[in-house]
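Why show two proteins at once? Because comparison is the fastest way to build intuition. When a single record is shown, students tend to memorize it. When two are placed side by side, the eye starts asking what differs. So, the first record is below.
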Amino acid sequence: MNHTSEPRGAGRRLHLAPAAGDPAHDASHDLPQDHTQSILETTKQVAALLKASGYAFALAGSVAAHAHGVPAVLRHDTDFCIRREDVDGVVQALREGGVEIVPAPEDWLVKARAGGEEIDLIFELAHRPVTDDMLRNAPVLSVDSVRMPVLTPYDLLSSRLAALSEHHCDFGPLLTVARTLRERIDWNALRDEHRREPLADAFLYLLVRLDVIDPRDRREAGP
């Protein structure tokens, strides 16, 4: 009785890692990584130095949204708002605390690095200066057990709306922020502030059509 022997390994699938230069290999390296805990550690380090310096500041960006309870996987950097007139003092305080200041082409922020993570020290949000009122109104919240001032939900979303442009118009992350923080935002004030900005106005109208927020009047509610 003849038995046809199979080559060793027949029937088993071999999963080979793509070689360097292969498009699949390159794409896998482009996938965003979850830096949540590392970014939080850097955020706490910088906040401690800023608190010790005495300069007014507030946490901003995706980490601020995270502090307000917005579901997020942190992948990029941590952002802080400071006043333009405090830039030199803040930079000195961070340098003395071991934070590396790095060159930045932008003229509305200072870039830094610590713990392998990027830090943006912002003194203009979408071409609008960070104000005393903005920093004064920032509530003090616990960010991974360290308390620090965080931009209000209103200022957080308003600055994101003001930054929308034809080259950067991703409503997805904004929608998550709006759904999570909708009870803590004065939507009529936000409409008034951004009524002359087509993309921001379109996003606010989208929120009405998705029943995230109430319409201001019947015309806005749609059919």
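Second record. Ask yourself what differs from the first in the token line.
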Amino acid sequence: MRLATADDTPAVESMILARSNWLEERSLPSWRESAAELARQAENPDGDMWVLADGGQIIGCTTVQEHTPPWGWTKEELTEPAHYLYTSVTDPAHRQKTPGTVMALWAVDRAAQEGKTWVRRGCHYPDLVTYNETQGFALFHEVQRTHTKVYLMGRRAERITDLEERFRAL
């Protein structure tokens, strides 16, 4: 995992479009309409987007914020130090090696190293809730946001002892 740069934008967009094709083949909602906009997050000078690179190929990305969005969480939860993940996307050609899980575990480990208590994330689909639960995340809140329901999830930050092995397996 490394911070994304502006030079990564085309590869990130290509990877998002590959995931969009995979989703659409299964009649699932895709990222296609926002692929270019999402990929431009790689250009953020504050360095929020991280990429999972295998050699020169980008096989995943996730965006990490230092603060939990203020809506949907309790006042007490918002006082707890946490990283917030969003826009996590992986190349479906690598899905058998579970790059999404590796990125999530990297985030959990990184948060622990930085003294955070939690890693939080949100998603819009019950199937993603189930998938995120396989990574150790728990559902905390369901929030209606304008036209969509958002499922807010969290996992305690902790060191992941086999993280290097998981990266090597990719």
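One difference worth noting in the second protein: The CA atoms of residues 139 and 153 lie 4 Å apart.
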